[in-house]
Amino acid sequence: MTSRAATRPLGTVTRGTTNPNRLRRMDRWIAATHGAELRRAADPVAVDLGYGAAPWTAVELLQRLRAVAPRARVVGVEIDPARVAAALPYERAGLAFRHGGFEIPVPQRPLLVRAANVLRQYDEGEVAAVWERLCARLAPAGPATGSRGGLLVEGTCDEIGRRHVWVALGPEGPRTVTFATRLGSLERPSDLAERLPKALIHRNVPGEPVHAFLRDFDRAWAAAAPYASYGARQRWIRAIRDLTADWPVADGPARWRQGEVTVRWEALAPGA
Predict the structure, then answer these.
(1) What is the pLDDT of residue 272?
(2) What are phi and psi of 129, to 5 degrees?
(3) Residue 122 CB: number of other CB atoms within 10 A?
(4) What are the two backbone dihedrals, phi and then psi, of residue 98, each rounded to the nearest 5 degrees?
(5) φ/ψ (deg, to 5) at 269
(6) Distance between CA atoms of 58 and 64, rounded to whole angstroms?
(7) Kindly report the CA angle at 268 between 183 and 50, in degrees rounded to 5?
(8) CA distance 177 to 169
(9) pLDDT tens digits, residue range 8-17?
(10) Which has the closest alpha carbon to 47: 172, 135, 122, 146?
(11) Residue 178 CB-half CA count within 13 A
């Protein structure tokens, strides 16, 4: 007989804060960068892990993924049974809700796990183990087909989604860090520091790579001040162009124009 402890979902209940359209920046990035993986799969399953007190983010994720991968399915996973019960009326073709946690209670390996604002309440020392567990559940890479496998996107945003920072991980581990913002609300790039994911937020101190990156970003932003007369977007693009001289920026102007910049994980990874 399976014990109750053995079947208990892994993780703890979050505050459950959620708002419609809160994760739009993350979703747009996922659709743009991971859409090809989702399209080529016969049964592309995405998991919205810890969707919160209302199912809006899971509903929106399905809409945005199907715009680039019509066969995509979304499973919302919540550790609070009451939240699952409240979400069930929103189920439809391609959208389901399940009770669970970090064990990801779906039969197949998902091509996407989105975990937004889930780890913020955890200790920094717990993050690596959670990442490892979630990455182990991702669809594996397929060298013969050119597939890089599933994607875990884990990060934090403000209550209405104006500022967002996330880490993208594959089956092999962390790949990149993306900073995304509504440029009209930004005074300086380091304003995004308050939304760093748990793996980085306590490392924003002198001597750590993420602190050096944000310092250099602020300097590049200040140097790009003359471009502000053409708008915040042009100033942002100019600042990132300057950053590329010293930092491994992993994307290009098409994403920068969206108020994003993506940097290789190894450049920002915490020091010892």
Answers:
(1) 62
(2) -65, -40
(3) 15
(4) -135, 150
(5) -55, 140
(6) 10
(7) 70
(8) 9
(9) 777 766 665 6
(10) 135
(11) 29
Helix (H) or strand (E) segment spanning residue 40: helix 24-40
Tell me the average pLDDT across 18-27: 90
Query: Is residue 4's pLDDT more than 90?
Result: no
What does pTM read for this prediction?
0.93
Which residue shows structure tokens 């739009």?
Answer: 24
Residues 99-147 pLDDT 10s: 999 999 999 999 999 999 999 889 999 999 999 999 999 999 987 778 8
Buried b (16+ CB within 10 A) or exposed e, 123-134: eeeebeebbeeb
Token pair 């937020």 is found at: 201
Per-residue model confidence (pLDDT) at position 145:
75
Are 17 and 159 in contact by the 8 Å Cβ rule? The answer is yes
At residue 249, φ and ψ (nearest 5 deg) are: -70, 130
Residues 97/87, Cβ–Cβ less than 8 Å: yes
DSSP single-letter state for residue 172: T
DSSP state of 259: T
How is residue 88 written in tokens? 């069930």
C-beta separation of 118 from 154 below 8 A? yes
For residue 271, which amino acid is it?
A: G
User: Which residues is 173 bridged to in the sheet?
Assistant: 170
